[in-house]
Each structure stands twice: as C-alpha cells, then as structure tokens.
Amino acid sequence: MILEMKVPSPGESIKEVEIATWLVKDGDYVEKDQAIAEVDSDKATLELPAEASGVITLKAEEGDAVAVGAIVCLIDTGAAKPSGAAPVAAAAPVAEAPKAEVKVEAPKAAPAAPSYAAGTPSPAARKILDEKNIAPETIVGTGKAGRITKEDAINAVPSMGTPTGGSRGVERTKLSMLRRKVSERLVAAKNDTAMLTTFNEVNMTPINNLRNEYKDAFKAKHGGVSLGYMSFFTKAVTRALQLYPDVNSMMDGDYKVAYDFCDISIAVSGPKGLMVPVVRNAENLTFRGIEAEIKRLALRARDGQITVDDMTGGTFTITNGGVFGSMLSTPIINPPQSGILGMHNIIERPIAVNGKVEIHPMMYVALSYDHRIIDGRESVGFLVAVKEALENPVELLCDNNPKKAFEL
To answer: How far apart are CA 148 and CA 141, in angstroms?
Structure first.
C-alpha cells in the first residue's frame, strides 16, 4: 500500500511551508514517527514525522515552498524492512593479466619559450589601463600569444587592495522562511510604528544580594530551577504594566486594544535563530512559576520543539542582549505589541550614593515604544517603575517577605 504524506497545518494562519532539510534519502526505509524532514513556516521550524513504516519516495526538494495539504512524499508500507548489510560474496580468482609490452618512451619536447607578446598590452589597451591606473602585470591577456587586448582592458576591474593570497570565497545561502518572516516583521515595525526609545540604569546590588542569599535554597527546594534575573525583571515589568496600562495595549487600525492580563514574550536564542515564546498570565505567577516556565520554553526552543502556539500572542516583550555582552541597544518592537524592554550586561561602575562615590554592578535598560499610543509620560514612568522595583525588590516584588515570595 502506498501512503501519501501531506503537509500538516502548523497553525490556523499558515498556508504554506518550506522544506528546510530532508533527514532521510529517497529510497530509505523509515520507521513510523521517525523524523523525516524539518519544515519552516513563517513562525517556527517543525519536524515532520513519518506516518507509517516503509520505503520513502520524496516528492519535494529542499528549499521548495509547498502548500499545506500538499503531498511531500510517498511511503510504501508493504515494503519489507531490509535486514543487515548483505554478506560480501567471495572474490572470484583473478586471472593473471598478460604482461604489457615494453615501450620506449619518446623524448619529451622542450617547453616552448614564452612569447614576447604575453602580458603586453596593445597601444589602445595600454591607454585604457593607464586611465584606470591598472598595472598590465595584473591582467591575463586573451589575445594572440597572451597579448592584452583592448577588450581585456575595458573589462579589467581596479584592485580594491593588495592581494594577500588568502581565501576570498563567497557563499550564497537562501534564508529560511522563518528568518525571512522575522526580517519582514522587523522592517514593518520600523516603517509602520512611531518607535522611540528611552533609557535608564539600574543598580543591581539589591537583586544580587537577594540571589546570593536565597539561590541555593531556591534551587534545592524547586527541583533544580534556578533563581535567575528574568523572574525579577518579569515581576518588575508586570507591576509596571499594571501601573501604566497604555504600555500593555496595541493599535488596531483606529482603535486601541487594552489588556487586563500580562502575557510576556521572552526573546530566546535557538538553533534556528531568535524565538519569542510567551509566558501566559505572568502577573499571576510566582518567582518559581516564572523561572520554571522560562526554562521549559527555552529548552523547547533549543531542541527545536517550539510550536506556533508557544509564540502566539504576547502583550509585551523582554529581550536580554546582556547575555551576549551588549552594553546598550535600542530594541525593535515586536509587532503588534507597543513596547519592548531591553536588558543589557552588568558592569561595575562608580556611582554617587548619599554623596559618596561607590562601586556597584549597574545595568542599562531601554524601553522602545510606539509613540502613536504611548506618550512620554507613560513610557518614562513605566521605565522608572521598573527601575524602582528592581532596586527595591524586597518591598515591591517580595512584599517584604522573600522566603514566602520564593516559596521556601
């Protein structure tokens, strides 16, 4: 029986996918549920499992865009599974080859002396090369006996530098459907929104003190889940979004859509590029709940198991360029959202504290926002609220009871 495998729908709005990589070859025997291909949609990269066991016949090439529901391969379910490698047949006795006749090799002709014309430009070619400031020695002539013709001089391109003899290879690779969609959305965000960025800095000493005091007990109590920075930032963001709800809204034509919940998109780096899975109702989660959910989503992104549903929605985004060493950036809004918070690396810097200079771990934070819907008062107030919560986490994020907040 021949089974026709069709492209399943990765999501309601997705009409086609692209064959990124075939994980099997035409004619291979595949097992049921074995991953046979990776397919790119404009939202995620997904694995395509075999629907039955049998010999596979591929019907699409890598890089092909195929519609949802189209046939991508055939599986012959009646084909027998091949056994191990066939034994090597005994070699037949080889008859002795007749001895070759001995031939006397004729003496080789001496190489021809190079022609005086090789590398010499014609008068017209020399005039053109002089105008282009190109040395004749750098041109390979195509004329008789290697002479540099006028056409050679016209086609010659001036050198952009002294050749070093190193590699100068160029590789042209088609972007995945996911990367093309990300590019399209980023350009749209720049073109279709009135994006502006405001900055502030955060003294990370209070959070570092809390983490140092409780991180070991937190990890032991919660099955290996670490107490990281992201739970503090997520808590600070959800608090600020409730204080400044315009930042938690978005444009829809002539209307403003406001949300009474905080679905926080967390930008994570995966093998296929940037992924932005969503932590749902983050305002109701504890520190443990946020850290556990971020860890789950990050592992799914790393292992290529992230789904469209995991990345759908989101009312606000947090991105952490600090893990790559970024000191300061202007993050791009994740449309149709209206705001994104950029975290950066933590560097010890001298600051004034109560009239004295002290060294503290400091982080720059950036809020990019859509000025069509968020005014300066809301944007600056939001970022100041985030800063206040991060610099006073015991009172504003832990309700003056860290042990209870950390569920210890």
So the answer is: 4
For residue 181, give both structure tokens: 């969609």
The CA distance from 319 to 110, in Å, is 71
Measure the CA–CA gap between 162 and 319, rounded to whole angstroms. Answer: 43
222-268 pLDDT, tens digit per residue, is 999 999 999 999 999 999 999 999 999 999 888 999 999 999 999 88
Active site residues: 371, 375
Q: How many CA atoms lie within 13 A of 376 on its CB side?
A: 0
Distance (Å, whole) CA 37 – CA 125: 56
Given a contact cutoff of 8 angstroms between Cβ atoms, the answer to whether 260 and 344 are in contact is no
| Residue 308 · residue 301 · CB < 8 Å | no
Instruction: Give the C-alpha separation, 197 to 24, whole Å.
Output: 47
What are the boundaries of each domain within the chain? 2-76, 123-152, 196-405
CATH number for the segment(s) 2-76: 2.40.50.100
Q: Which amino acid is at 342?
A: G
Whether the pTM exceeds 0.85: the reply is no
* Separation of alpha carbons 406 and 190, rounded Å: 39
Q: Which CATH class is domain 196-405?
A: alpha beta
Helices (runs of H) and strands (runs of E) counted in the chain? 10, 19
Amino acid identity of 115?
A: S
Of 194, 174, 257, 268, the C-alpha closest to 230 is: 268
Token couple for 55: 């010999």
